[in-house]
Model the fold of this input.
Amino acid sequence: MKRRNFIKSLGVIGVGLSFSQTLAAGLFDSKIVSNSDGFSLSILTGNTTKALKLAENFIKSMGYTGSIKVDEYQIMGEFVSDAVFVSNGKLVNFREDNSASSIALSGLSKELNMPSKVFNPFFIKLTGGADKYSKGDILILREEKLVKRVKTGNNTEVSVEGHLSASEITVHNSGVFMKNAPCNHKTCIAAGAISAAGESIVCIPNRLRIVIEGIEKDSPDVISR
Amino acid sequence: MLFRGKILFLLLLLFGSELRSQENPVFEVNAVKYLLGTEIEIKALTPSIEAGKYSLYIAFREIERIDSLLSWSIPTSEISKINLNSGKVAVKVSEEVFDLLSRAIAYCKEFDGYFDITIGPLTQLWGFSSDEIVMEPPSETSIQELLPIVNYKLLVLDSTNRTAFLQKKGMAIDLGGIGKGYAIDRAAAKLRSEGTENFIINAGGDIFTSGNKVNGENWRVGVKHPREEDELFAIIETTNEAVVTSGDYERYFIFEGVRYHHLLNPRTGYPVSKNMSVTVISKTAEEADVYSTALFISASLNENEKLIKFDCLIIDSEGKYLATPKYLINR
Done:
């Protein structure tokens, strides 16, 4: 699979990840136009341990300090490994310029043999600065594997196969909620809609978790219930 | 020049932390697993992603181990073996389970049976812990039939032979009010032993906080409003403490206009209706787990406010509340 076809294959399973300037119309759209004071480093890889170590060193070599959020999800299927770095709202095209971050990112890319074909890879994302607090997409995970990524604000109905059977999820302007679920107690439906970054809905029997990417600034770190 | 620059950045990439002397970033790693019948999330702050992830792995492995010892839905667990032999024979248990049962009985005594780990038969009858749908309460007769076998005094612990024996057939231990707290404490100990000091464990809403956030501030724990879906009742700033809430709004059904929930009074066999939510802060999650359950069942703001000796937030059925000064109320 060619790198540029990466987004197409992701589209097949509904995961809107993008990994080049051409493909940046997906995941990184909001970041690119946001002019935010922050950064995100996304890596799609089959070698998680090595990628995390390299990503950590990349962040350190760039001189970033403070708190860096690390997310990691497995995605099922065949993909092409790649890395994307967005700094202060701009996509760093590391294959075409000679900036410090591009040189370091090229090194990371080479160390991880990018681009290459990977099966059931991991999507790793390190986010820092203001980007940590930007509201991202809606992620739908089954047993902590990413099965669907939906843009917030879309009005759409999504059906996802869970551990028991399919759950129906409604995404609307102001958030997302579980419309229908095969579990008996329906706690996930009773949870209502979520709309803020970092919020989640869980259906334990069907092993599904819906989460809105990001962290809501000034929100509590955790909820006791 | 460009070549030298490239070399420098590649070295930084490969040996970043060793080559830089300035302040390093802190990484926020997290993991989620389904254990103890709920979703458990651990978030840790770490200078090294690899070390942080390893400590999460060790912590989850510990929770898995405890689940395999205490779960009554796992037939090979020590608790299942005690239950299966109720009324028949004493069962040899590990030192860990013996100690936990000993502490549990002490809690039962402390709360004069309002907290009772032999509540298993009633829990099963009501069905809140099962995957089955619950639409209406069980019959009065079936509840009355079970009450005689819900009594912690009939659980005999023999320290010489390290055995546990449920004296009447049909009795069953349900560690739902203590097991999760114990597992959280053990996971917290494992994280610390791996050098991870700053973390939050969230086991289905039972929280343990340790250390601080990157900016040195305490962790902020929101307490869910018992009736307003998207609202918090309070926010607590805390560290190195557990925050556990027992409420009537997570597992419940409405039958003929009455709310029936999973927090049962062991003395009557019915859910308690005087409180909507009880949150307890304590040094250990085990204690907070037990106290929040026991206080939910026994505490009444009008009657025995003075008996409440824990840091807590009690919201009664009329919405009146008692909050100790430790709470930052944000309404």
Summary: DSSP finds five helices and 15 strands in chain A. Confidence is low (pLDDT under 50) at residues 1-35 of chain A. The longest strand of chain A covers residues 67-75.
